[in-house]
Every structure is written in structure tokens, then in C-alpha cells.
Fold:
Amino acid sequence: MVREWDPRTASSAEIASLLDTLNAVLAADLPQDPPWRENSMREYLAEVMPGERRISWVAQTEPAADGSPGAILGHVHVLLLGDIGVLEVLVHPSARRTGLGRDLVLTAARRVYQEGFQSIGVEVVGDTPAVAFYESLGFSKEYVETRSVLDLSGVDWAELAEMATGIGAGYHLQFHPGGPPDELIEAYARAKAEVRDVEDGELRPSSYDPERLRDSLDCLHRRGMKPYIVLALHEQTGEVAGLTEVVVPVQHPTRADQYDTIVVQDHRGYGIDRAIKARMLMELRSAEAKLTEVQTWNAQANESMLKVNAELGYRPDREWCEYSIDVAELVHRLDAGR
Ligand SMILES: CC(C)(COP(=O)(O)OP(=O)(O)OC[C@H]1O[C@@H](n2cnc3c(N)ncnc32)[C@H](O)[C@@H]1OP(=O)(O)O)[C@@H](O)C(=O)NCCC(=O)NCCS
Structure:
């Protein structure tokens, strides 16, 4: 029932069926999240960064009598990067608790093991069946973040405009839809390299050198995800003192994703964090007419970032956890249980 599946060559009917399952999962587990649209879904599933590989499998019902393909009720893919395989599993709510999720994980885990990778990591959303599922498979919790959501209809735009200008002398802000301009890529990558702080969970690695950064932006574009950037430039040195990145995915254009926000150590204490985020929201308001919400993920220990987000109007929504397990241990455990 489970077979390897390549989104690049899959039929449009299969892509649509997988999207239906994803939306059924969201409706069951995260009912406040917007459903996904079909736009660039194939590219979203297929495109990866250079040097990374994504391998996918589906569980599909039998073809119908007229030969049309069966429904995709389960899906797993694993993204191979560094020495880790990052897993994502979906089982349609109507097909749960029959062992399908476990079968999908075993299929992917065997491949990760054969490919010589050490461990498997997965993002697990708090308060959903996935927590009990991964714990039953022996995964352990490595890292917890809080997802917060900002409802743009509740924003006081006049207050936000003040926040956007409340920045120390000697800095100015720039807005760049699409990504940083070429002449700033090096300074931008330096700012990201300096601050590898607790904000970045292991499963969402940032890009720290200019080449990797270009590749990462290119990959986002190919997957239908439009990046927006606000920078704080230090006028005296031309250095990037702070940056904030938001991505608007064409698959759910009403809810944007906040990526990194960084203020370089020497430039902290000048109101840059609050100003760049406020400016970003103002720019998004005019650039993205469909946008109604922005979501962000923060380490629970990152009190200053959480404070700024609360001032902007973000409300904590859910725990978002990273779990991991040694691949050999997982394969042996699942094989032994069969
Ligand atoms: C997590 C998920 C993959 C589990 O799929 P599944 O096919 O129902 O899982 P299985 O039937 O293989 O369950 C294996 C074991 O996990 C545990 N488990 C799974 N769901 C559980 C639940 N709701 N409550 C308690 N334990 C659960 C049980 O120990 C179960 O064994 P048992 O049925 O013999 O008791 C499925 O719920 C899913 O797709 N969730 C969404 C995941 C996701 O990534 N969402 C992202 C957006 S929310």
C-alpha cells in the first residue's frame, strides 16, 4: 500500500488528493490554520536546496473502476540534510489508528538508515495526536518553541508607525521585497552568521554564507514562497545591524511566516528589533492585500523577543516541538514490533 512517490512526475489528480488530505489534517488538528491552496503545491513538495534530497512515499487506495487513481490517505517525506533526516508524516483523519502512520515512519526510517544517516528529527505540534504518536515510537523531545499568531485586523497602525521610527540615531531601515539586494548579500550573511542564537531550532537551519543564502532565496522562490526583508543599516560602517524576514507562501497567502529576526550583538539596545518588525508589518499591509495574519516561532527562553512580539500584538498559540531519535534504534524498535 505504501509506495515511493515523486511529486515532480505525479499526476495533478494525485497532487490534488494529497492537498485534500493535508487540509483534512489541518481541519482536524489545527482548525484555526488557513487551508492550503493548490498553487505551486508540486513545486513546494519537489524543490530542495542544492546538496539536499527529499524522498517521498504515499499510501493510496486502489484505483477506481474507471482507472482514475486512488485517494492518497497517507504521506511521508524525509529531507536529508547534514547527518539528519527531517521527517514529515500525514495520515488522513479517516484512516488514523490503523497503524498507517507507523508503517510510513518505518518505510522512511529504513531508507534513512540505508543512506547512512544518524538520526531522524521531526517537528511536532503541541496538543495534537502527533505528540502521543512520536512518543509511542520512542522519539524524545529536544527543543520547544512557542508559535504565536498576530491578527492584522487588531493592529493599531498609528502606534505601529511610531514603533517603526523609534530607532536610535545612526541607523536607517530598508525594505526589500524578494530578498536582500546583491550589494548587501555579504553584509547580510555576516549578520546572520554572528547570531546563531537560540531562536534557531536545529530543524530550521539559517543560511550563514553568501552562496548558501543565495541558494536558499532561490529555493524559496521556486517553492512559491515570497520572502520580504527589512534591514537596519548602521550608517557609519554600512554593516547590517539587524534584519527581519517574513515569507508569504502562495499555498496559504492569508497567513505569512516570520523567519529569522536578528539584531547583531553590538547594536542591541537601540530599539532595532521592535522597529524592523513594525516596519515589516506596515510594508506587508500594502504589498500583500490578502494577508490577514502572521505567525512566528520563538524559544520560550527568548524573553526579549517574546516581549516585543507581545507589544506588536502576537498571541501565543501552541507549543511547537522538535523531537528526534537515533535511526538504528527506531528501525530495530519498529521491526521488532511487527
Ligand atoms: C500523528 C499521525 C501521523 C499518526 O498516524 P496514525 O496512522 O493514526 O498512527 P498509528 O495508527 O500508526 O499509531 C501508532 C501509535 O501511535 C500512538 N497514537 C497515535 N495517535 C494517537 C492518539 N490520537 N492518541 C494516543 N496515542 C496515539 C498509539 O500508541 C498508536 O498505537 P495504537 O493505535 O496501537 O495504540 C496522524 O495523527 C497525523 O497525520 N497527524 C498530523 C501530523 C502532522 O504533521 N500534522 C502537521 C499539521 S497539524
